[in-house]
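Please decode residue identities from the backbone states below.
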């Protein structure tokens, strides 16, 4: 950046922050808003309330009260962020990304803190976990929502929750339920997503995938090797059965007695002839830091085992391995239409790096992990304000680069479109469970 570009940022930031004026009823409360955002955008080594307040020339207590006590509408601010994203960055191939991040915290007063697995350090540690929804379209990506994961130990101790300002209606929910809440909140606010993707921590939960499919949301989810499904849909009966006329009858509906047991995806890839004998197709996914990422893939149609043990929705099962390291294997499932090309599914599946980049940037540049407090409202507002600050950074980056937002020409799950020119299969077509994958698609063109 040159000096003129830096000088222009101040009025540009001022105009951007005016988009959120109606979130504040009082002028004196609104005055703290730019101080907090400018502190997050500054080069301060520490970006908690105290150093940001001292840099702005105000008492640290004022920013702490602004975050945790002053009355202003943080929910409206979150909706405004999502509205701005849809106004300026909406596209036909938008991808939602569900992921979580963690922050190590000391003591036992921070809302939601306990000894649990923290991905930021890769081990069990005293810290908090937050679940986030990211939005990616073309070259643009940003976080648009986040929520605290409240452990069961906290949920059962309501006195502790009240001391931390956690609402009575907020109780323990599995992380996948929080993810569905973030999705529902975003859709209710006008966010439109053609696809949604997640890692195996969420993809391995059948109830989460059932929830997305019930909402008619197309997804590509990574699943663990233990994820169970059937090669063909097994028979289900509604007929009650009572052995010898005595005892409790079996539950219905249920699988018929002769039905095969489901298999995990690793077993299917190794033993099911449709996948085992299928030739690998090579795909160039994207450029990584160490060069191009090339993966080989196979695909077939399977039936998911629901949480109640019964057959559920029919899915694509994509088995992918690193072309340079065949021991690195990933499994993905998707409820996209049967004719969707494998290349399109891989593009979505490997879009999760977007939200990981958001986490890295927000922690290194915004101070996402430097919040210090004992009040849930302060944490909630900090997550939202971090989205506000990061959205401004992404807008500046796009403007200074002089590039228009451009997608990878990802095909819509509801309409067949040409896929990315950069994603090319080395084979003209892949076999599915019936021996053919249908007409040749542009995404599967040979080089």
């Amino acid at each position: 950046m040159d000096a003129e570009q830096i000088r222009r940022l101040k009025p540009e930031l001022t105009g951007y922050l005016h988009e959120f004026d109606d979130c504040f009823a009082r002028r004196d409360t609104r005055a703290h808003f730019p101080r907090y955002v400018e502190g997050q955008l500054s080069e301060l080594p520490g970006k908690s309330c105290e150093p940001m307040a001292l840099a702005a020339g105000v008492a640290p207590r004022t920013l702490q009260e602004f975050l945790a006590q002053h009355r202003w509408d943080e929910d409206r601010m979150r909706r405004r962020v999502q509205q701005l994203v849809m106004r300026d960055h909406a596209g036909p191939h938008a991808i939602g990304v569900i992921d979580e991040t963690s922050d190590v915290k000391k003591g036992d007063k921070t809302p939601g803190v306990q000894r649990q697995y923290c991905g930021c350090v890769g081990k069990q540690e005293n810290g908090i976990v937050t679940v986030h929804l990211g939005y990616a379209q073309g070259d643009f990506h940003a976080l648009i929502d986040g929520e605290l994961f409240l452990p069961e130990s906290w949920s059962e101790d309501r006195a502790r929750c009240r001391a931390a300002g956690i609402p009575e209606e907020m109780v323990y929910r599995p992380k996948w339920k929080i993810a569905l809440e973030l999705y529902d909140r975003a859709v209710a606010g006008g966010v439109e997503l053609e696809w949604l993707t997640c890692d195996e921590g969420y993809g391995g939960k059948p109830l989460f995938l059932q929830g997305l499919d019930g909402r008619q949301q197309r997804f590509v989810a990574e699943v663990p090797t233990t994820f169970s499904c059937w090669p063909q849909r097994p028979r289900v009966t509604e007929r009650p059965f009572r052995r010898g006329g005595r005892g409790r009858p079996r539950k219905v509906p249920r699988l018929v007695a002769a039905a095969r047991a489901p298999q995990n995806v690793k077993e299917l890839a190794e033993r099911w002839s449709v996948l085992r004998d299928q030739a690998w197709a090579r795909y160039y996914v994207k450029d990584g830091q160490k060069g191009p990422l090339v993966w080989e893939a196979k695909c077939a149609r399977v039936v998911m085992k629901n949480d109640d043990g019964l057959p559920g929705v029919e899915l694509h099962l994509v088995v992918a391995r690193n072309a340079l390291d065949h021991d690195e294997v990933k499994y993905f499932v998707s409820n996209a239409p049967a004719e969707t090309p494998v290349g399109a599914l891989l593009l979505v599946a490997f879009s999760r790096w977007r939200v990981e980049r958001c986490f890295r940037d927000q922690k290194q540049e915004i101070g996402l992990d430097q919040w210090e407090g004992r009040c849930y409202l302060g944490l909630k507002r900090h997550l939202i304000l971090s989205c506000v600050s990061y959205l401004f950074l992404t807008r500046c980056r796009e403007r200074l680069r002089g590039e228009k937002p451009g997608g990878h020409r990802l095909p819509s799950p509801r309409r067949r479109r040409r896929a990315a020119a950069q994603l090319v299969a080395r084979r003209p077509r892949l076999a599915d469970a019936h021996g053919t994958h249908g007409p040749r698609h542009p995404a599967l063109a040979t080089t």
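Observation: The chain has 15 helices and 14 strands.
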